[in-house]
Amino acid sequence: MTDNVYVPVTATVEKVTLEAGGARPIRTFRFRIDDEKEWPKFHHKPGQFAIISHFGTGESVFAITSYPNSEGIIEVSVMRVGNVTAKLHELEVGDKVGIRGPYGNDFPVDDWKGKNMIFIGAGIGISPVRSVYQWVLNEENRKDFGDVTLIYGARTPSDLAYKEEIKELEARDDLDLWLCIDWKFGPNGPTGESAEDGWPAINMQSPGETEVPDGQNRFTCFVPQLVEVVKPDPKDAIVVTCGPPIAIKYITEALDRLGWQPEQIYTTLENRMKCGIGKCGRCNIGELYICKHGPVFTSAEICKMVPEF
Ligand SMILES: Cc1cc2nc3c(=O)[nH]c(=O)nc-3n(C[C@H](O)[C@H](O)[C@H](O)COP(=O)(O)OP(=O)(O)OC[C@H]3O[C@@H](n4cnc5c(N)ncnc54)[C@H](O)[C@@H]3O)c2cc1C
Ligand code: FES
Predict the structure, then answer these.
(1) Relative to the CA of 294, which ligand 1 atom is closest?
(2) What percentage of residues in the chain have a pLDDT greater than 90?
(3) pLDDT in the model for residue 308
(4) Ligand 2 pocket check for 274: Cβ under 6 Å
(5) pLDDT averaged over the chain?
(6) Are 122 and 242 spatial neighbours (Cβ–Cβ below 8 Å)?
(7) What is residue 139's three-state secondary structure?
(8) Integer CA distances (angstroms), 230 to 217, 246, 267, 277, 294, in order
């Protein structure tokens, strides 16, 4: 084995799950590191990322979504957007990839014991959020946390990832699950109508005044608006959120209106990266390397580095 940190270890595809279809499909891959001696190095923590190479094409960065384990298993959910992700989407069980990592800091889950947990995922942003809610909901850890709420939205029902898992989560009585799909658009923007049967439109002008019939947990709206419908209570609570920067901005504003402090809101940044280990300067904001000092930051930390956020 070489000491060159840029040389990946090889891993084999053990399982491929098509999570979402549409123009930008999402597939979850379960890889197992080939060399058993490398398994301890891949014992990751929630929030860390891996760099996956498709041989002959290139490398890309992905949040590790699997529960931390000692068996050399790394799962990532990949949205097909360009060269590397398109090639990864062609992988089948038994194919080989390269993996570097796990890299970056992690969510301070031990500091959150005793808190109520609110998870908010928009689009593929659900992927890093999943690594933390899986941690909190795991039978070993669930007793250490208070109420758990998951708020998740995608463009359409078929764009929602982890559909089987969502059914299981919906059946749990120790989790409050809320889902949304985007508004239909007309020539003047969102139409304000339900986008699908069973997904009623919220009160578009005043989301917080939406009437929520008993048992109704699916709506037509954007994720930040669903946050205003659900109104998560900031008392003794932590939010973990991830999504496109514009969604994070509006989610943070919605939480602010509900009385949340920036120190209670954790997110993970997805700046473009190359080396993943603080050497190349591709990902930095000011003096901070997102790959090394992050990708997990509180809203308070992000506001200091990006004042307009
Ligand atoms: C810490 C971190 C975690 C990430 N986790 C995930 C994940 O769990 N699942 C997932 O699907 N993707 C994730 N991404 C984004 C993923 O790395 C990029 O989508 C991927 O590298 C694109 O590679 P490509 O060769 O297919 O696309 P390219 O051919 O390089 O580009 C295709 C399109 O994607 C855009 N793009 C490329 N990289 C990024 C980026 N970092 N952010 C936003 N747009 C980008 C390009 O501008 C272009 O429009 C993460 C990124 C980071 C930095
Ligand atoms: S990706 Fe190279 S310094 Fe962060």
Answers:
(1) 1
(2) 90
(3) 52
(4) yes
(5) 94
(6) yes
(7) coil
(8) 9, 20, 19, 38, 29
**Secondary structure letter of residue 197 according to DSSP:** T
Ligand 2 near 249 CB (within 6 A): no
The pLDDT-based confidence of 309 (bands split at 50, 70, 90) is low
Q: Which ligand is nearest to the CA of 77?
A: 1
User: How far apart, in whole angstroms, are the C-alpha atoms of residue 45 and residue 69?
Assistant: 9
Residue 291 CA, closest ligand 2 atom number: 4
Domains of the chain: 9-103 (2.40.30.10), 109-268 (3.40.50.80)
| Band of residue 3 on the pLDDT scale cut at 50, 70, 90 | confident
The closest alpha carbon to 128, from 297, 300, 13, belongs to 297
Q: Is 154 helix (H, G, I), strand (E, B) or coil?
A: strand
For the chain, the 3-state helix, strand and coil shares in percent, each to the nearest 5, are 30, 30, 40
Q: What's the average model confidence in pLDDT over 246-254?
A: 95
Q: What angle do CA 64, 65, 70 make, to 5 degrees?
A: 75
E strand or H helix at 169: helix 163-171
Which is the closest atom of ligand 2 to the Cα of 272?
1
The pLDDT of residue 277: 96
Q: Is 83 touching ligand 1 by the criterion CB < 6 Å?
A: yes
Residues 6+ apart with CB under 8 A from 224: 247, 250, 251, 253, 254
